[in-house]
UniProtKB/TrEMBL annotation:
Coiled coil region boundaries: none
Similarity-based family: Belongs to the carotenoid oxygenase family.
Protein name (Swiss-Prot/TrEMBL): 9-cis-epoxycarotenoid dioxygenase
GO CC list: chloroplast stroma
Superkingdom assignment: Eukaryota
Primary gene name: LOC102600865
Organism: Solanum tuberosum
Listed GO MF terms: carotenoid dioxygenase activity; metal ion binding
GO biological process: carotene catabolic process
Keywords of the record: Dioxygenase, Iron, Metal-binding, Oxidoreductase
Length: 613
């Protein structure tokens, strides 16, 4: 296996010097050949000069067509399966025009802010973003099998606009639209899949995918934009880790293009969860690569027009880091053992691996510091994708996050039939079942809330796990963003429906939880500390949520003055709705339920954007 991989690598390096022309749609692509989940530029390619040959266009076109014929001959695209029980993970068609929503149960509060509730990531199964041509793909060839991961697929933005008409009557308008990245437009014009899956499967097949993608399109992976939406400098962006953000016209949802303001000052993608620095409004970002420098940090001006600071964090490995934290003075950096190692792929192993015995540490870095200014704290190895909040408290920096003993990414080493393998792999993480209550082992892939207190003077680490018990598992945390970087009393998360986890291996979120950090619940003799209070808002049976977000009340005084807004889908009736819940009356019925005219698949992250016009 290793010898074959090295032979294929030699072919990659030789052929890449004389690649044919690629489709014009990608000529100006800002894809820097790196990503959080696909840092796939082989380091050996850097040793070769950039050779430019004056080749006639006819020869370039012929070369491209020959490569296309070669791909069609040796590679077979196969749709990954979608079980009937996963119907709302299936993609939906793009709408030509928005539709007015007329069915509202309850009443949208008079003091609810006007704006747009927007969520990214139309999904196919298990949080799977919206793919073209019917579903995510796998490929078979003489070199083996490769498949898309469940996090791959084109992004689709779903938006609900809430505005008041004359007389104060609320008007709701729903629309959706694909995020039109360069590679999305290219494949749409081709009317068939183009990029071969290049993240999961047999190592030789993955290396072949790199080669053929590079030779045909000039880039090795698709530019996805399916994870999150954010605002900065009065502009709105869609983002995923494997590409620069795409600017979105928030009113029409049209893609305006890549964020080119940073051209020349930032040559890699950045995290799906950039953070605004408290006080300055600057945007703090991080980006990883499969070659050195493995991780860099940047600070973008509050108006979004320039990079005011950038630092190589001098990592000795490529670690997947989905989110960064900020406090009033510091950046909080997670260096955990979900590793991308290109050399393992070349040797016949997997590109991405969670090293449960590897080291884990949290770095506290002054806002404009460098690698030498980071103070590192060793913590127990675990997997963290999402940070709840970070803040300073006396001599400590407090980090609150969702922590699991294993990583749900990349999942099992699998190929075509990875749906079944993923389900079985998740079930192996599940221990005993007692009625409707499900407990999970310490090695579970499912997250619970944890907290680290890092003493900047003594270097001591205090770690708390399962701070309000083991009753539920949860993910996709959010807070009142006005409190980000400051001490928060509350946090909100989506609750995993345990019956869905145990029954099929794929998560749905059957409710929401409100965490009261400053209220105690009970004293547990088996725990070192008291458990904190938590409230639950569970949806009716077979109704699940996604993209939940906090909407602050204008002029609100308390941290929880506001509402929770979330997309929900009733699988019994096949109806999608938007629920608005009073955060202060969290366990009560929603104050308003807005029934949409079309189905909205489950998705990733959502946000509420106040609009003035």
């Amino acid at each position: 296996m290793a010898a074959n991989s090295y032979s294929l690598l030699q072919v990659v390096t030789k052929c890449s010097l004389q690649k044919p022309s690629r489709p014009t749609k990608l000529e100006h692509s800002r894809n820097p050949l790196s990503s959080t989940f696909k840092p796939i530029l082989l380091r050996e390619l850097d040793h070769f000069p950039n050779i430019s040959l004056d080749v006639p266009k006819a020869i370039k076109d012929a070369s491209f067509n020959l490569l296309e014929a070669f791909v069609d001959f040796i590679c077979e695209f196969v749709d990954q399966p979608l079980l009937p029980s996963k119907s709302n993970f299936a993609p939906v068609e793009e709408m030509i025009e928005g539709t007015t929503v007329g069915i509202v149960e309850g009443k949208i509060p008079d003091d609810f802010p006007e704006g747009v509730y927007v969520r990214n990531g139309t999904l196919d199964f298990f949080l799977r973003p919206n793919p073209l041509f019917g579903g995510l793909k796998s490929t078979r060839s003489i070199f083996g099998e490769s498949s898309h991961m469940w996090i791959e697929g084109e992004g689709m933005v779903h938006a609900l606009y809430l505005n008041k008409e004359n007389g104060g009557k609320w008007k709701a308008l729903y629309k959706n639209k694909h995020v039109q990245t360069d590679s999305y437009n290219m494949e749409k014009d081709r009317k068939k899949p183009g990029f071969l899956p290049a993240i999961q499967g047999d190592s030789n097949a993955i290396l072949l995918s790199y080669l053929l993608n590079l030779l045909r399109f000039g880039v090795t992976d698709k530019s996805l934009s399916n994870s999150n939406v954010f605002e900065h400098g009065n502009k709105y962006y869609s983002i995923a880790e494997n590409h620069m953000p795409q600017e979105i016209d928030i009113h029409s949802l049209q893609t305006k293009g890549n964020w080119n303001i940073l051209s020349g000052s930032w040559n890699r993608p950045f995290t799906s969860h950039p953070k605004k620095a408290p006080g300055t409004g600057e945007l703090v970002i991080i980006g990883i690569d499969g070659k050195k420098p493995y991780m860099e940090l940047g600070v973008i001006s509050a108006d979004g027009k320039k990079m005011v600071h950038k630092a190589d964090l001098m990592f000795d490995r490529c670690t997947v880091c989905h989110e960064i934290g900020v406090t009033q003075r510091y950046n909080v950096i997670m260096n955990f053992p979900l590793i991308v190692d290109i050399s393992q792929l070349v040797l016949g192993g997997q590109l991405m691996k969670f090293e449960k015995d590897g080291y884990a540490r949290i770095g506290i870095m002054p806002r404009y510091g460098d690698a030498n200014s980071i103070k590192w704290f060793e913590v127990n190895p675990c997997s963290v994708f999402h940070i709840i909040n970070c803040f300073e408290l006396n001599d400590e920096v407090v980090v609150r996050a969702c922590e699991a003993r294993q990583s749900v990414i990349p999942g099992p080493s699998s190929s075509i039939n990875h749906f079944d393998k993923f389900s079985k792999w998740l079930k192996r993480e599940t221990s005993s079942t007692n009625g409707d209550s499900h407990e999970f082992t310490k090695e579970s892939t499912f997250s619970r809330v944890c907290e680290w207190r890092l003493n900047m003077k003594t270097g001591q680490v205090k770690e708390k796990k399962n701070i309000f018990g083991d009753e539920f598992v949860m993910e996709f945390p959010f807070i009142n963003e006005n409190i980000s970087g400051f001490r928060n009393k509350f946090a909100y998360l989506q609750v995993v429906e345990s019956t869905e986890v145990s029954g099929s291996g794929f998560s749905k979120f059957g409710g929401l939880i409100k965490v009261h950090y400053e209220e105690k619940k009970t004293f547990n003799m088996d725990e070192e500390d008291e458990l904190i209070k938590a409230e639950y808002h569970m949806f009716p049976k077979n109704t699940f949520c996604s993209g939940a977000s906090f909407v602050p009340k204008l002029g609100g005084i308390d941290e929880d003055d506001g509402w929770i807004i979330t997309f929900t889908h009733n699988e019994n009736e096949n109806i999608s709705q938007v629920c608005i819940i009073d955060a202060k009356k969290f366990t009560e019925e929603p104050v308003a339920i807005i029934t949409l005219s079309s189905r909205v698949p489950y998705g990733f992250h959502g946000a509420f954007m106040p609009l003035t016009s």
